[in-house]
Amino acid sequence: MNIRKMEGFKKEEIRKGPWKAEEDEVLMKHVKKYGPRDWSSIRSKGLLQRTGKSCRLRWVNKLRPNLKHGCKFSAEEERVVIDLQAEFGNKWARIATYLPGRTDNDVKNFWSSRQKRLARILQTSGTPSSSNPKPQKNKNEVPVFQDVPTLEAPVFSSSMEEESSYFDNPEQIRMMPLPSLVKTELPDGGYANLSQYEPLSTIPFPQIPQLQPDLLFSPESHELLARLDDPYFLSVLGTADTPELGGAAQFSLGPPLFDPVSGCVNSAADVANHVTPDTLFDEFPSDMFDLIEPLPSPSDW
DNA sequence: AACATTCCCAACCGCCCTACT
DNA sequence: GAGTAGGGCGGTTGGGAATGT
Asked: What 3-state class would DSSP assign to A267?
């Protein structure tokens, strides 16, 4: 079969760009009926003028149940991403499996933003690294930590495998095990302390490695750490990007910023009583955090 | 108010893997 | 075993919103 010919033939039929509500509706109906699979059949049946890939992506990133829309990453989530990125590298899908309601795209975007901020700070403060013409893009970034023990991945994932069954029985959605660090909002409006879920009791919770700072610091971190002694550098950190760090003397991690009701990080007003660590975390390389505070052991979650 | 910069995020692209024929 | 299709994943881009000057 001459596929290229076929593709060319059908090319004008393929729709791209932002999804309309009607398209979402069609896609939802398809998934409800057949489950999150057979993406290409959506087009072949003439339901949508989208590629199977596009449909899948839309479902995974926007239409799946239990996604956190419009929520910034909580401090806890940030830390998980940071640590797991150090552990796994840019395996966003894998990292996302540890973050309920987050997609690989979310994690990827979060990390990308963070890297850009960090790069700009380093640039602003006039380090040798600022001579790097393209500091933002850490293409094919090699994981900093090579020798940390392998984690046991959770059995859930943001991919489709585990979802193919729960759509067969909508009731299963309600009891779908969510890996979570905190209470999780359920579709029916209740909240689940996840330990109460039977399925979870059999799920080994992901263990975030207790990284050894001496072994694990990247060159980037060493540079940054060294420069923490530099008053100018600190002043840059405190003013250029994060004015709230002016109150760093009172800084404390405080309680988690995660709001169990919304499932989201608390609003600025909500966290006004204690300085949010988010912005501070953003400015440092991932392994910086291992000096600040060791992660709680999974048993503490 | 106007413009510039930065941030955020949705979506696409290309590569790779796997299952199927 | 080779070819093909479908799906998964990481990288990248583009546009709108938010923020700063």
From this structure: coil
Interval A207-258: pLDDT, tens: 444 433 333 444 444 444 444 433 333 333 333 333 333 333 333 333 333 3
Q: For A62-87, write each residue's pLDDT tens digit.
A: 888 888 877 888 888 888 888 888 88
Q: Which nucleotides of B are covered by protein (CB under 7 A)?
A: 6-14
Q: Choose among A9, A71, A85, A126: nearest CA to A267.
A: A71
- The token pair at A103 is 């997609």
Do residues A207 and A216 make contact, with C-beta atoms less than 8 angstroms apart? Answer: no
DSSP A62: I
- pLDDT score, position A165: 39
Please state the φ and ψ torsions of residue A28, each to the nearest 5 degrees. -60, -45
Quickly give A184 CA vs C21 C1' distance in Å.
42
Q: Which of A252, A284, A256 is nearest to A86 (CA)?
A: A284
In angstroms, the CA of A230 and the C1' of C13 are apart by: 37
All domains of chain A in start order, with CATH: 3-63 (1.10.10.60), 75-152+208-300 (no CATH)
